[in-house]
Amino acid sequence: MTVGNVTLVVRRLPEPRAVLALLKPVTWFPPMWAFGCGVVSAGRLDARWDALALGICVAGPLVCGASQAVNDWYDRHVDAINEPGRPIPSGRVPGTWGLRIALAWSALALAAGALLGAAGALATAGALAMAWAYSAPPLRFKQNGWIGNLAVGVSYESLAWITGAVVALGGALPGPRVLALAALYGLGAHGILTLNDFKAVAGDARMGVRSLPVQLGDARAARVACAVMLAPQVVVMALLATWGAVWALAGVAALVTVQLVLMRRFLADVTPRAAFVYSGVGVPFYVLGMLVSAAGVRALGGAA
Questions:
Q1: What is the pLDDT of residues 134-174, one digit of tens each?
Q2: How do residues 11-53 score in pLDDT, each as one tens digit?
């Protein structure tokens, strides 16, 4: 198409690299890690490796990838303000291709999840339902930071953890120790997701997305995020002490101590950049605690 003396290229098909960017591989790690923690906590590392590999693929590239495509499609107007270079607002994924990719990737995830048995299929369907409810109207959980971040934390961490344990156990439901860890670390992930909201405050406020930084202001939202991350870990330490997992308790306590030091620095000067830095430097200690706790439960007999 030519406008005056300028020729504009109207793209009809998405760029392959833009499709990969739409699926955001960097976001696949949390549910894959949680799935792996579920496998470890189940105490069954002798399970079928093909099933475990498929489960990790479903949790990360497929379900999480689909959720990212769904989110980008329904956030395209907000992204045009906050991040206009993203695949859809930039035009690299033109027309309704964003929605088509989200639907196709969701269908692929469902098909792959069905290969994990009834429990895997149910977990996959539940995670995808949560992903669509998070981003798409009429529910659009992300409109409220309290609800939306909880939905993502439960889906990315708790559900993925439990699914990993179930697959490792050949379809059996794990015991209360495993379920408790999965639930607690999923709740704590709410705070991690709040940190991610700091980068989009201007666009969120303009488009009516009530993230916690929008609702509470940066300083209060930062304090809430840190408290929400710390509280479940304190409960995890109490449980590990009760269960007699001494070395795991010591490991988690050391990791929490490091987080406290880094949180203090973050809270002293709350900015979007500081939230980004803490996400990259402090959150890994939270994530490592998940594995330490899972290994501690495994040492106690796994899925009990």
A1: 999 999 999 999 999 999 999 999 999 999 999 998 888 89
A2: 688 999 999 999 999 999 999 999 999 999 998 666 678 888 9
- What is the domain partition of the chain in residue ranges? 15-299
**What is the chain's percent helix, strand, coil content, to nearest 5?**
75, 0, 20
The span from the CA of 153 to the CA of 144, in Å, is 14
Q: DSSP letters along the chain, please? A: -EETTEE----SS--HHHHHHHH-GGGSHHHHHHHHHHHHHHT-TTS-HHHHHHHHHIIIIIIIHHHHHHHHHHTHHHHHHH-TTSTTTTTSS-TTHHHHHHHHHHHHHHHHHHTTHHHHHHHHHHHHHHHHHHHSTTT-GGGBHHHHHHHHHIIIIIIHHHHHHHHHTTTPPP-HHHHHHHHHHHHHHHHHHHHHHGGGHHHHHHHT-B-HHHHH-HHHHHHHHHHHHHHHHHHHHHHHHHHT-HHHHHHHHHHHHHHHHHHHHHHHS--HHHHHHHHHHTHHHHHHHHHHHHHHHHHTTS--
Phi (first) and psi of residue 228, to 5 degrees: -70, -30
